[in-house]
Every structure is written in C-alpha cells, then in structure tokens.
Amino acid sequence: MKLGILLHDLHDRENEMARHLLRIAERNAADHEIHHLARDLATWSQAHVRSLAEIAKRYEVELDPEPDSDTAVTQRLLEKTGELLGRRSEASLALLHDLRKVYVDAAGLSLDWETAGQIAQATRDGDLLDLVSHCHPDTLRQMRWANAKVKETSPQIFTS
What we know:
This is DUF892 family protein. There is one protein chain. By secondary structure, this protein is an all-alpha fold. It is elongated.
C-alpha cells in the first residue's frame, strides 16, 4: 500500500528531526534555554516515531519503535564542543544554520502530516486521523520555535 511509503518517510524524517534537535541541544549546552527546549522538542519527535511504528502495523509495515540515537561517544563529544565554543560567533552562526534546518525539515514534515491527514479523511481512518491530529501540531510548534529563535538571535549575531 502506498500509505506504507508515507509512514516510512514520516518515521525516517521524525527520527532525523529528533537526532538533529538533540545535537543542537548538546552543541548549545552553555545556552540553557536552547539546550533544554531542543531536548524537549526532540522528545516529541521520538514519541512520533513510536506512534508511527505502532500504527504502521495496521498496514503491514514494519517500523522500528525505538527512535534512533547517536552513540554515547558522539553525544559526549558534542557536549564538549558546546562547552568549549560557548557563545563564540562561530557557534552562533552554527546555531542559525541548525535552526534553519529545523525550520525547513519541520515544514517538510508538516506537509507529510497534512498528506497523511488527507488520506485519513478520504479513507475514513479514524486512528490515522487521531495520530495526525496529535503529531502535526507538535511539528508546527517545532517550526515556530526555530523561526522565533532565528528572529531573536540573528540581529544579535550579525550586529555584534
């Protein structure tokens, strides 16, 4: 079924979003707001991965229910990098790049969730519609967070 392809894509993209947000959190350990918020946003994508794996079974699609994660060594290296860079200008530019990626990736995910919602409505699949209704707003919040952080930090970065 073609829906299986969409579920697989959503699963992969949510996994990637979670990994990227965790990397942002660790690279920006010195900025507690970014660190903690990015970790919280990553848990949303991890929950989406689990939910997608559960509903995919109905369509005979096998998805791993456990979100991907970077190895402990990579995580520790990213933490150290974040500590060493702190708030230096290179780290600030890297943060803008990371936030842009979150925004663009979340926009793509949003379209995929919209597509899944349209399919759910057309096929009268209440379970899929419930999943979309739960997950899609989280993705939109991730996108709005990235956009707000870019608006907040870019003037500071480029004028200092």
